[in-house]
Specification:
mainly alpha, about 60% helix, Branched-chain amino acid ABC transporter permease, ABC_transp_permease
Length: about 600
């Protein structure tokens, strides 16, 4: 007789739920090490890091931080402040409403990265460790100690996935990678923010003013970085600092205040932007500023089409070209085929109207298409526009646009006797040509922001959002989908044309090469769409921030040479992988990508 026995399965290993850090140090020791390391990193910036001024930024001075030392000082100060706040010191609780541990880790990691990047840059450029002074060694040890202490702070580890006995080696490797990623995600996960106590309205407005002042300071510093190493260090420090403040819950707290006072926030933002030219000693960075505003304004117009209505437009830059060519032809340029010189207000209205007419002409027969088919049609329109203006040279076609030479010698604007091409003195500050156009473009941007805000909050805006979310359901509810989409297309085209009328005068010359689908220099259709997606579709501030980054970063990464677009593209891929909703998403879209996030009590009409 044969006896069959069944093996009893081994009991599953019990998951250890005791909170512990990544580094095997006691919690008190790790917290003290992180706080003290941050403070020591601040002290190290007042020491010399190298003996020669051959390295940019002059890091040879005692008692006065310079160049990359300033960034390490900021990171060390944030690490120390978060560490002190974690001890419950009175007066620092407002800094960490969602808890301090995750913010300490990110701040310490950012400070460590910036300090060691600087030390490695000094060593490589100057030829060895012999070029380092004691301050560099102190910074290296201090930031490493702060990082180790921060990683020793305890956190609740997630239950690991168990392996199947039949898994292959590759499957076991992937399982281990998933478990490690889950642990790292839990390590940097923020806590639950404490309820905000009620403060007076004037205090909330002061918070908004402070936030705008900090934003202006960060933007001015970033755009004014004078050498490549400093800009890379700025990106590292700014990225980790914003991440740390977000993990601490401070960004969400400030965002709630700005959402409560939207009009005050908008006024404060434009006031801070208007102060930018007064922070510059010359017109060099005002040039970048005015081009960023042109790019951002067109991106915001595209956000109506893509972000609100959900229409994928790959030829949007053509509407910018329509407005620019229209303004150039009636500007009194000697290259224009028409002997017309209209005032700016008339040319701006004409450019917007002509662009809107083109939007209606293109949209009427094509907006019954959806998705990829609509994208292909709009891409074709963009290329047709570029080729059409290229061939209207009197040889291949009628003599209207002067072909590849474009319309040149476009005169500077003169509005009510104010010549935009001349320097002017305002309150003791000298404002040059590009600063003049910066203020004009800022006014145009304000108009576009108001139009976007009023449109998104209107009945037609709610219809756009309904079409974007589910067109079939919207049609079933009685919304005229074709009419609604055509209005979005026409309005977006008009806003792009309005920005184009200013661009024509800023650049002096309008040529077909400026309006391609993809090019190294924005604005072009690919960069415009990337600005909307990167910044956050359906929001006001998202495309503005996205456009600023997409214009500024490639301009500052020119030292990479042939690898510039590779590095830039890799950064975009990583960002879309880890933050697909964009840098400043609306709440509804954020919940679509992160289902485990806590849903808000109330969603606005635009999902913000």
């Amino acid at each position: 007789m044969t006896t069959h026995t069944t093996a009893t399965p081994a009991p599953a290993a019990k998951h250890d739920t005791t909170p512990r850090g990544l580094v095997a140090l006691p919690e008190n020791t790790g917290r003290a090490l992180a706080t003290g390391g941050g403070a020591l990193a601040v002290i190290s910036t007042f020491l010399a890091w190298t003996w020669t001024s051959a390295f940019p930024g002059d890091l040879t001075v005692y008692g006065y931080p310079g160049g990359l030392q300033v960034l390490v000082l900021i990171g060390g100060a944030l690490t120390a402040l978060f560490g002190l706040a974690s001890y419950g010191i009175k007066g620092l609780g407002w800094l960490v409403p969602a808890g301090a541990d995750s913010s300490i880790k990110l701040a310490a990691l950012g400070t460590f990265t910036t300090a060691w990047y600087t030390i490695l840059a000094i060593t490589i450029q100057l030829g060895g460790l012999v070029n380092l002074e004691p301050g560099a060694y102190v910074a290296a040890v201090a930031t490493l100690a702060a990082l180790l202490g921060a990683l020793a702070l305890p956190f609740e580890r997630p239950a690991p996935e168990t392996a199947d006995p039949e898994d292959t080696a590759w499957e076991e490797f992937l399982l281990g990678a998933r478990n490690a990623r889950a642990v790292m995600k839990a390590c940097f996960a923020p806590g639950t923010a404490a309820p905000a106590r009620k403060i007076p309205a004037y205090a909330e407005i002061l918070i908004i003013v402070a936030a705008m002042a900090v934003g202006l300071l960060v933007f001015t510093y970033g755009i004014g970085t004078e050498y490549d190493e400093l800009f890379v260090g700025f990106l590292i420090t700014a990225g980790f600092a914003i991440g740390a403040l977000s993990k601490a819950g401070l960004v969400a707290r400030v965002s709630a205040v700005t959402a409560k006072h939207r009009t005050v926030t908008m006024i404060g933002a434009f006031t801070a932007a208007a102060a930018f030219p007064f922070t510059q000693s010359d017109d060099q960075y005002a040039t970048i500023g005015v081009y960023i505003l042109i790019f951002a304004t067109v991106a915001l117009g595209l956000n109506i089409v893509v972000g609100l209505a959900g229409l994928l437009d790959l030829g949007y830059v053509a509407f910018l070209g329509v407005g620019a060519y229209t303004a150039a032809m009636v500007s009194g340029s000697p290259s224009s085929p028409f002997d017309i010189h209209l005032p700016f207000w008339a040319s701006a209205i004409l450019g917007a109207v002509v662009a809107m007419i083109f939007g209606v002409i293109i949209g009427a027969p094509t907006l019954r298409l959806r998705g990829d088919y609509l994208a292909i049609v709009t891409l074709g329109f963009g290329e047709i526009f570029r080729l059409a203006v290229l061939n209207m040279d009197g040889t291949s076609g009628p003599d209207i646009t002067n072909g590849s030479n474009g319309i040149s010698s476009i005169p500077n604007l003169n509005i009510l006797g104010f010549d935009f091409g001349q320097e002017h003195t305002i309150a003791g500050f000298t404002i040059a040509r590009f600063a003049n156009y910066f203020f004009l473009m800022l006014l145009i941007t304000l108009v576009v922001v108001v139009v976007f805000r009023r449109s998104s909050d209107s009945r037609i805006g709610r219809a756009w959002i309904a079409i974007r979310e589910d067109e079939t359901a919207a049609l079933a509810m009685g919304i005229n989908g074709f009419r609604v989409k055509l209005i979005a297309f026409a309005l977006g085209a008009a806003l792009a044309g309005l920005a184009g009328t200013v661009q024509a005068h800023v650049t002096y010359t309008v040529t077909p090469e400026q309006y391609q689908f993809a090019h190294v220099v924005p604005p072009n259709s690919a960069f415009l769409l990337a600005a909307v997606v990167l910044g956050g579709m359906g929001t006001i501030s998202g495309p503005l921030v996205g456009a600023a980054l997409l214009y500024l970063i490639p301009a500052k990464l020119q030292f990479l040479g042939d690898y510039q677009l590779f590095a830039f593209g890799l950064a975009l891929v990583l960002l879309m992988r880890f933050r697909p909703e964009g840098l400043i998403p609306n709440r509804r879209r954020q919940l679509e990508f992160h289902e485990d996030a806590e849903a808000p009590t109330v969603l606005s009409k635009a999902g913000a």
